[in-house]
Design a protein that fits this description.
Largest sheet: none
CATH topology: Globin-like
Strand content: under 5%
Radius of gyration: 16 Å
Oligomer: single chain
Shape: globular
Helix content: 55-70%
Distance between the termini: 36 Å
CATH architecture: Orthogonal Bundle
Length: 137
């Protein structure tokens, strides 16, 4: 896609701000009493993880096409990820965003993260549900 056909960003945030947000956020994640152990058991190379997730967000916000991954499937396959982790993750994400970013970036980014997180939470809840239970819609 050339520059004339490029989609504009969803909201006003730079790639550098996305990177800074991921660095600050994952410092908090590593130290979180509940989420820290879940992440620390799987992530051994934090700079690579932060770069991959920053790439996810640059794709979602800036429409870069650099991210290659399947976050829903990864979270559903990771048995230590539980549905109740998502509200904690999202609240922490919001706290960090409000601290690190201007409101013009933090407010829409948190709203987008909550929409994505809600969908991921439902997917994880569904895969963890007892056989024969009512589907989560």
């Amino acid at each position: 896609m050339n520059a004339l056909n490029a989609m504009p960003p969803r909201f006003d945030v730079t790639a550098a701000q996305i990177d800074a947000m991921m660095q600050a956020f994952y410092i908090e994640i590593r130290n979180h009493p509940v989420l820290g152990p879940v992440f620390n058991e799987r992530i051994t190379d934090w700079p690579t993880h932060e770069a991959k997730i920053a790439s996810f967000w640059r794709n979602a916000i800036l429409h870069e096409r650099s991210y290659n991954g399947r976050p829903q499937q990864v979270h559903m396959a990771t048995k230590s990820v539980l549905p109740e982790h998502f509200p904690m993750w999202l609240d922490l994400f919001e706290d960090v965003a409000l601290r690190v970013l201007p409101t013009t970036a933090s407010t829409p980014w948190v709203a987008l993260a909550r929409r994505i997180g809600d969908g991921m939470q439902m997917g994880v809840a569904q895969v963890r549900a007892a056989p024969g239970s009512v589907p989560i819609l």
